[in-house]
Amino acid sequence: MTSDRATYPGYRFPAEIISHAIWLYHVFSLSLRDVELILAERGITVPHESIRNWCRKFGPQFAAKRFFKRLLTGLKYKPRRLVTDGLKSYRVAQRELLPEVRHRSSGT
């Protein structure tokens, strides 16, 4: 596999498939086996245990990005500063979606 952003190091499947599986699981509240069947219909054979591991590892980042995107859609201005609690996935989402905004965590 190539070492570009479309892959996760150490994972057999490209990031696009992993992201799609996580998206299906979280957005539609499907079971892991349902996600497995949907991917199988598209010719991607992945066990539900792998999907569970992906959701456990990458799921919080997906939820944080989705939260920030929804939060930013209603704003008419671009924030200069962002204050969050100590959740690490917020830091990752902030770096990707709002790289120029200063971030401070008020770790509780």
Describe this structure in words.
The protein is mainly alpha-helical and 108 residues long. The chain has one domain. Helix content is 55%, strand content 7%. It is built from four helices and two strands; from the N terminus they run H-H-H-E-H-E. Strands 1-2 form a two-stranded parallel ribbon. Strand 1, helix 4 and strand 2 form a beta-alpha-beta unit. Helix 1 packs across helix 3, helix 2 packs across helix 3 and helix 3 packs across helix 4. It is elongated and about 45 Å long. The N and C termini lie far apart (41 Å). The relative contact order is 0.12.
Describe the structure in brief:
The chain contains 4 helices and 2 strands. The chain has helices at residues 15-27, 32-41, 48-73, 88-97; strands at 81-84, 102-105.
Strand adjacency order, main sheet: 1-2
Radius of gyration: 16 Å
Global outline: elongated
Query: How many alpha or pi helices?
Result: 4
The helicity comes to 40-55%
Distance between the termini: 41 Å
Q: What portion of the residues fall into strands of 2 or more residues?
A: 5-15%
Name the helix and strand elements from N-terminus to C-terminus, one letter apiece: HHHEHE
Low-confidence blocks of residues: none
Number of strands: 2
Task: Please give the domain count.
Answer: 1
